[in-house]
Each structure stands twice: as C-alpha cells, then as structure tokens.
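Protein 1 of 2
SEQ + STRUCT:
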Amino acid sequence: MKALAILFLCGVAALARAETSTNELGLTISPGIRYVTVSGDERKFREDWQIKDNWAGGVEDAAFQHSLGNGWQLNMDGRAIFDEEDYRIQLEIVKPEVGFVRGGFTEFRTYDDDTGGFYRGFTPSSFGLDRDLKLSHGDFFVELGLTLPDAPKIIVGYERQFRNGQKALLEWGSVTQGLTTRKVYPSYKDIDETVDIIRLQIEHTIKNVHLGDQFRYERYDTDTTRFDATPAKTVAIRENYRHDAFYNTFVMDSHCTEKMYWSLGYLFATVDGNGGLALATVPFNAPFDKNWFTRAVSSEVDSHVVNLNLSYGPFSNFFIYAGVQAEKTKSDGFTDAILTELAGGGVTNSPAALIHTRNDKDSLEETFGVRYTGLPYTTLYAEGRWAEQWIDLTERETEDAVLNLQRETDTQVFRQDYRAGFNCSPFKRITWSGRYRHAIYDNDYDHEADNTAGYPAFIDTQRFITDEFMTKLTYRACREFTVSLQYQLASTDTDTGTEAISGLGIPAGKIRSANYDSNIYSISATLTPISRMYITALVSYQDTRTKAFDNSADSVVTYKGNVVSVLGTVGYALDKKSDATVEYSYTHACNAQANAASGLPLGVDNQRHAILAGLSRKLTDNMIARLRYGFYYLDDNSDGGVNNYKAHLFSATCTLKF
C-alpha cells in the first residue's frame, strides 16, 4: 500500500505541473517533516500520545478537485506519513443527478507499552518484554451509486477491514520472590484479523412514504495467539475463528401530516461460525501443566428484531413520542477439546472434553417521551425507557466422559430508565440547563439445574440503581468574554442476592456488593481581549470512589480517585501574514492505594504535561509555512518512575495551493 500512496502523490504532482498555467486546478498539498526525541520510556510515550519517536515525514494532507465536464466532478484527498505507516487515499467521481464511484484506502498504527505491573517489594520492581508492540489498522473500500431523479437510489459496495500486529494485555502473569507472589509479569497478543463486507442499499420514496433496505454480508476471520507468561514459563493460547454473517434491515417511515411521523423497521441476522483453540505450555512440567487443543468449535446465532416508532404534536408547543421494539435471538455453541499430557516420557491424549451452550433470548423494549416549549425561552423534556428480557441459558460440560458441569438458568430482566431535563435562558446573557436520570436494572436468576456451588450460580438476584445529575450555567458577560460552570454527579449501588456457601464465607440473603460515586466539577472560559487574540481554558476536577464487597479480604480496598485536568489555548495574530498558537494540557491523577502488604496496588499517582507551540507564515498567496514545537512530560510515582519520560517534537509543514 505504500506504492499506492506514492502513486497518488505523484499523480497529483503531475496534474499540478500539467495545469498550473490555468490557476484553476484546485490542488492543495502539505508536505512536512517531523522529528521526536524521547528520554526515558519511549514505549510509554508512544502509547500515551500515539506518536512514533525519531524521524517521520511525507504529505500531511493533499486534496484535489477537478471538473471532468458534462457535470462530472473528480475529488481526491490523501495523506502519506512514511516510517509511521500512516496513509489515507480517497477518490470520488460524482454527478449528483446520476451517481458516483468512490474508493479509498486507510492505514494507521496504534502503540502499546510493554511494561507490566509494579510491586515495590520485588527486585526488579517491574518487568518489560523488550518488544515494540504496535498494531496496524486498515480499511479498503469501493462503492458504486445510482442517484437518478425519481428512481430508486442504489448503492453497492465492497470493504475489507484488517488489523495485524501485537497488543499489550492486562492478564499479567505471576512472579514469585521468596514467599511473595504477585501478578505483575506483562503479557501480549498477536493479532491477525480481517473482515470482508459486501453491502447493498436501496432507497425509494413513494408519495410521502420512504422505503429502504440494507443487505450486508460479512466474512470475519481471526487468528490470534495470546502469550501469558511468567519469568520461567510461557503459556501460548492460539485461537482462530471464522464466521459468515448475513444482515438485512428493512425500514419505512413517513410524515403523515405536519404533526405526525411514524417509522417501522425489521432486522434479520444469522451468523454461522467455527473455530479452534490450542493451549501449549513451555517448558511443560507434568502433572501441573496441561495442554489442550480443540477438534471442533462451532456457533450459530439467529436474530429477529422489529421496532415501531411514533411521534405526534397535537398541540402548539407540546410534542410526544413513543416506540416499541421486540427481539428474539437464539444462539448455539459446541466445543470438542482434547487434553494432552506427558506420561512416561511421551505424549498421551485423554478422552475429549465436550462443551455445549445454548442461549435463547426474548426481549421487549418501550420508550415514551414528551417535550414542552410553551414557557418563554424554556424547553422542558422527560422520557421513560423500559425493557423486559427472558433469557434461557443451558451449559453442559463432560471431561473424561464424566459430567463436570451442568447448568440451566432462566433469567428475567426488568430495566427502568427515567430522564427529565430543561434548557432555559432566564436573562439575555445567561443560559441554564440541567438533567436528571434515575435507572433501576433488576436481574432475577432461577437455576433449574446446577451441579456446582461456585460462581456465578450462587447468585439469585442483582439490582443496579443509578442516579445521575448534571447542570450547566453559561454567562456571556460581554462579546469578548464567556464563562461556563458545570457539575455532574453519578452514583450506582449494586445489591446482590445469594445462596449460602459456607466454603466461600457467603451468607444467604442480600448484600450491598458495590457502590460507585463520582463528582465532576468544571469551568470553561473564552476570552478575546483584543481582535488579534483569543484565549480558551478548561479546568476539571473529578472525585471518584468505588467500594466493593470484599468478603473480609485485605487485598480488596476501596478505590478513591482524584483527577485534575487543565486545557488551554492561546492564539495571536502577529501581523496580517503571521499567526502564533500555544496549546497546553495538564493532568494530575492521585489514586494511590496502600495495600501492597496483601495485594497488588493498582492506583495511579502521576502528572502529565504537554505543550504544543506553533507559528505559521503566509509567504505568498498560495504558500503557507508552519513550524511546531512540542514538549511532553510524565512523572509517575506509582510505578517508581519506570514509565517516566521527557519528549521534544519538532515539525515543519508547507501548504501549497495551485
């Protein structure tokens, strides 16, 4: 794909040379170069800012528009940053009253740090993989469209999406030093994933009824290997999976009158998939290590979804709307696995483990809302959402021809979600808004068959109660100064009903299993002291607390988090041809936990700074030059400074218009 990017850039350059004399080419191109130097943990810098260190350069942006005659228009745009695998090419030939041809390719990278957890009592206190973990994301598509007047609109297209590379995981492996064991050793995953998609879309309007149908075929293929390691052992888990999926969505809607609108939709989806899994441990030590591989993994899913929506405004300033959606989904999965062990110096295969899972889901969702605008400079609104679900889950596993797990669980779900709010402007310079949400989610589990007493079969009921409140006040003191104050509150309580399990110390009855509270305070302002300068600023403070039922475990502590964030921008016009900008961001997270004696402290205590300064100069009517400097800094006390870094960015770009 690098060749495609180079070909595109050479093509637009050739067009520029061929038609610069007409001054109507419509070409804009911005070549540039960048250098980033990092002292400290360069991999953590890449993960935080998704910027690669060292040299990178190419064309940051290129756009080209050209009339082909007879109403046809050619549009192209692209981007190619070499040594960073950042490419974008898009082309379109269009005539609005006839149709279009579109195509494009996009590829970019994301980066992960390869460092695991941190435990101050170990030597060393943290471990790294010494790997440059990066993941490439890409997309290629082609579309053909027919948009003739008074005829059905037809679009057919093909798309391929892909991901390949390596990504860090949080499933850290165990490290033992002396009598202490902590899960801090890093792990990662190899990913090779593709999705091929064929789409067909048809739309047409008959009188005042709009009809539409969208068909989508998807071929998904993935082959991943997860490496769960310790300093002395690595467990490689390879998984491959492929499915064929068909989706078809039919919609119709109409504005019957000026006051009434309705819509109807139906979705049918079917997925047929199969895959495999193999687990290998190196080095292999019997009888503690076990290797697995599957002979067959299959899954089937069929789903039908129907929805109906209606909105009606019978009175002036009063508007109501309602909707209902029904769903029926069935899924079936089967796995046949073989356990391999070392015995007598050789490898033996034991009888297979057979796993079968079936999940049937029926659901009904309703929505009802009202909106009122009859009060001066005020809008009031309220909405209710309800959902009922009936889920039948069957799980059965046999190992060595002996029943190991059998579970049949019927679940009833009832969800209630209520929202209300307002927007008003009581005075000319003041705008005030607010909203409140109250939600109750109830899950009731009936375990008709259960041959185990473990998690999660001992849970009978769950209730999640959430309250959220937000209010915002904006004051426009004058044309040059505006300030906004905002407050957000979120609280969730989780209650769990359980059976008594003496071995786990869990009593029968209901317990408050979790509680979450969050308060966010923010202030933002915009100031234009003179016509050549603007200043924007945002300061936010978030106070978060999460408490879980710990079953008397010292390793489970209450999480208390405090995060301060600052964002600011200053822009100044030095003269008619020169502009300067400075952007600053700051984050201070103070969430350290004091449970190193019993568990693994997962809190964060760090400060992150970023400054980006830019200078642009209009050299000619068709040429603008830009210089940028960036400074990035991380000081992390929660990991002993392992991830600390300082980075400097230098870049130069020139935008040319033809």
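Protein 2 of 2
SEQ + STRUCT:
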Amino acid sequence: MKQKWWHDKVAYQIYPKSFLDTNGDGIGDLRGIISKLDYIKKLGIDIIWLSPIYKSPFVDQGYDIADYYAIAEEFGTMEEFDELLSEAKKRDMYIIMDLVINHCSDQHEWFQKALADPEGEYADYFYFRKGKNGNPPSNYRSYFGGSCWEPVPGTDKFYFHMFAKEQPDLNWENPKLRQELYRMINWWMEKGVAGFRIDAIINIKKNPDFPDFEPDGKDGMAGCQKMVESVDGVGDLLEDLKKNTFQKYDAFTVAEVFSIKPGELEQFIGEDGHFSTIFDFSAHSLSEGDLGWYDAPDVDFKKWRETVINAQLEIQKHGFEANIIENHDEPRGVSRFLPEYARTPRGAKMLGTISVLFRGIPFIFQGQEIGMQNAVWNDIDEYDDISTKDQYHIAREAGLSNEEALEVCGRMSRDNGRTPVQWNDNENAGFTTGTPWLKVNPNYKEINVESQENDAESVLNYYRGLVAVRKSSEYKEVFTYGSYIPVYENTQTIMAYYRVNADKRILVAANFGQDEIELRLEYPAKNVILSNRESASKERVNIPGQVLKLGSCEVIVLECEHTV
C-alpha cells in the first residue's frame, strides 16, 4: 500500500457549539477551541475535525449553510479562524472542515434567487418540479419526517429536500453548480485547511424523474433513501469532485456514507478511491428500529462483536476506514454499547481501547476522552434536536406514553452527544458563564476534565496513554498497517483481536461480562503494553502458565511471541 501522510494519525471531532464558550453567550466559539489546543495536543491528536462553523440560521445545527465563505458570528470571525489554523500548525496539527454540499440553507443567496425566478438559472441549482394535481411530485419521506417536497410559493412547483424543508437539495447534475462548489472547496484548501469531513455525500445522486416507491409507513410515503439506493452513477460525480478539488492538494477526506452497494467499497476507499476514508457505522446501525427509535433494540454484545469484526475484515482488503464510538449525530458510546454495570471509568477505558487500536483512523469525539455519558432528560422541551422531536411524536403516535417516549429519546437522541463539554465542577461545568444553549449533563460534578487531570487512574489519562501507545515508535507500524485478526470468537463475553505485521503480534483482549474469564494464550506473552487495571493491582498482570485472567470490564494489550 502506498503510504499517505494521514495513515498513522489520530483525529478528534469538535462540535464547536458545545466545546467552550469564552464570551458568555452560551455558545461555544473559535476562541474557546484555540484556548484548548494544548489540551487536545496532549491527548495525542493530529487532526481536528470541526463540525460546521459557516454562517447559518441553525435550523439543523449549522448543517444548513447560508454562506460557504463566511464564519457564523456565533462562533467568531474569519480572523479567528485563520488564527486557529496558524496555532494548530505550530503544534503540528491539521484542521479539517465539515463539507455540506448535498444541500444548503433556504437562506442561501442561490435559493433566494431561485425563489425569485422559479424559471431562471438558479432554479436549476435545485430540484424544482411540478406537482401532481396539486400534490407533491412523489411520495418520498424526508430523513426528518414529512414530505421531501415543499411548495414553491406562487407556482404549481415544489422543491426537493431530503432533510429539513429549510435545507433544499442541490442539483449535482448542473455543471455550473458543481463548478461553484469546487471553487469554494479550493478556496478553503488554499487557506490552509487539510481536508474535509463530507456530509451525507451519497445523497447527491438523484433519479431526476423522482418515481414513487411502495409506501413503507402508514403515512403512505416511502423513505427517501429508497431513491438513493435505487440509482447508479454517484461514483462519476464523486470522481469529478475529487479530481477538481481534493486530489490537487493531497487532502485528507472522510465521508459520511451509509449506502455503499455490494462490491463498491474499493471504489470509495481503495488506493485510488473517491475519499481517503469513510466512517464505519456498522455498529451504530444495530440500534436502528424498523419504525423509529421507539422500536430500536438494545445493542446485543454478540451481535455487536460479529458486526465490527466483519467490518474490520472487509475493510482491510481495500483500505482504511474511520473508527468511531460516538459523534455529534449519535448518543454517547458508553451509554449505547455497554451494559449498565459497565458504564464506569473501567468500562469507558475498555471500549476506548477496542476502538482506538482497530485497524483504521481512530476518531475521538469531544468528551469521549473523559467518559461522558448520555444525559438525563425530563421533558421534550429540553431537547433542541429537530430529529429527536420528530421521533418523540412518532413514538407518541405509536401509542407510547409521554414517559415511554421520553425514555426512548433519552437513549437515542443526538443531543446526548451535544451537551456541553464538562471542563470542571463549577457552574455549567465550566463551559460558559452565561446560559448554555443546551443543558449541561447533571453528572458533570463526577465526570469532568479538571478532576481527571490530577487522577493518574482517570479515563482522560488512560486515553492519553492509549493514544501514545498507538503512536509510539515501537508500535506505530503494527497498529497502522498491521493486519486485523479476530480471536476467541466462540466465547460469551470476550472481544479480542490480534494486530500483526512481519515483526510483531499484539493481542487486544477485553471482557465485556460480569464474571472473570480465563483465556489460554495461543502465543506466549512477552510483555504487557497496556491494561486498565488500577495501578495497585497492575503487578498482578502476569500470565502464569500462559493463562490470561480477565476480570469484568478488563482490557489488556499484550505483545506476544511472533512466529511467521
């Protein structure tokens, strides 16, 4: 494999609105990010991904962009962004932006011009279609609920939106629009951005006829993803995008892709793939309900283990994938993937170890490094997320009580990942001196950065050691390019794998159960690289008779004898 500059890097996602507020308006800002660059660097981070900071009405938290060339005043100024780029560079860190080019805001100049002249050139930047007998052109349901079609005022036309009605989809079949987008992307690259996380990109290819599909709900509509899954040719658009932008700058690109067709992974992340990498969402799909969040199953350990193992085995045939436990669109991983007894510092360390040492690019989401958890929500009005409110109403319409619907939202809401970062045990967790835009998780007194800084056994200091191991001169090669080989798959509670190259064999083994487990080692142990046992009992990490004992929620990283 041709080695790339980003192969051995570790990334950190910042959701700016919830990171750190320095001016007391309750909203995180660029100045807050700049002030914490040393903290991020100490964690061992190379690449920082910023969720959208562009000018926006914030109907969908900045994923509705009104001006691709402007910083939202809530976050700061372009001068402060330039300062962030400069300060990150001084610390050998790279900044990647969020790129939202499937849709824009209805406040964007292009859409306003389209509305002003529905027959003009800007209308073709979007999908304006005539209705059928006054009804929408087709029966698609948007990702956020309701029809994908919204009337164009004063006409018999509708415009298409796969997300909120304030997020009209852009017409990628229009070459003039594509050139506008490419010009914008290259402008940011010239400014010094190292690449992009690319939002909802698989959706850019549409069937321009927008045929009806068989309804999949009582509303008589079909999920808009059915149209996406039925159409071919997105690869041509993605190659055009790459060749006109990213390729020129050797950019790092990580795409949000949910619907790769069988056999297409190589085209997306292979040596000459459309992107550097894509996120592995295979585990996250395990808690998706057929009808909504209200019928979403709990994550079963064995199913989770099988799913992530299969994803790792498939991915390594083609390239690198980006590994996540959580992000701004997901609940907290500790609360989602661990049983209740494991939602502890030890459990957080265990889950982090499994993820960070997988083959691929580790992405750590803000607060993950201190073991942040889902919040406790008491009322639907406490939420900000548009998707959560939609799912609450779906649950209520399905017959769930208010308490049951709130419990469902509490487990699954995107706002769980968006509660402010817990910096200390002062008011508002040290996030703001004002009123936070979203409630602070009440457990900030127990879980916060400041208390963990001075605790050698904390989740934070463990994560620092974990990332340091991955990037160390001794083990970087095997953790970057080494093969992934699952082991002990026939056990009830063990998640384990080897990372192997020509020189080394590393065993990563974790016990997700409540009882101690004994494992007979296949290869003699040479030394313990990392363990989440408390220091008082670290000396007990020896392997007499090559039998490894793992307590509840214990993880160990062992270097084993290597025979080729």
